[in-house]
Amino acid sequence: MSIETAADTTDVEALGRELGEVITTLPEYQSFEAAQQRVEADDDVQAKISEFERIRQEFMLARQTGNATQSDLSKLQDTQEELHAMEPMAEFLEAKSALAERLEAVNKAISEPLAVDFGGEAGGCCQD
Q1: Across residues 48-66, what is the average pLDDT?
Q2: What superfamily in CATH does domain 11-111 come from?
Q3: How many CB atoms lie within 10 A of CB 48?
């Protein structure tokens, strides 16, 4: 690797770190962080998350053994809907979606001059 190439790599990595730092100042990121903290601090939401995860694990096990029923799926969906309807969780999901949209726009801006979409599949050959 030449000195110029090493410097370019360092510059690109530095730009990547700078981009990451700037992203943390975006209103969408700030809203996401605040919403996540509210979810983590809310005992009722945490209890519902635990309940949902328990029911989801039970459903996955039942599905793997061929014993999952429509009733099991309905119970899982109902619990998820209850969780998502809780105000802190609803705000978190909305903030997460807004951040994802903003990051997709950043991805497009980075990928535009390139022949590769780095946010998507940048992998090897034979992709359908």
Answers
A1: 97
A2: YheA/YmcA-like (1.20.1500.10)
A3: 19
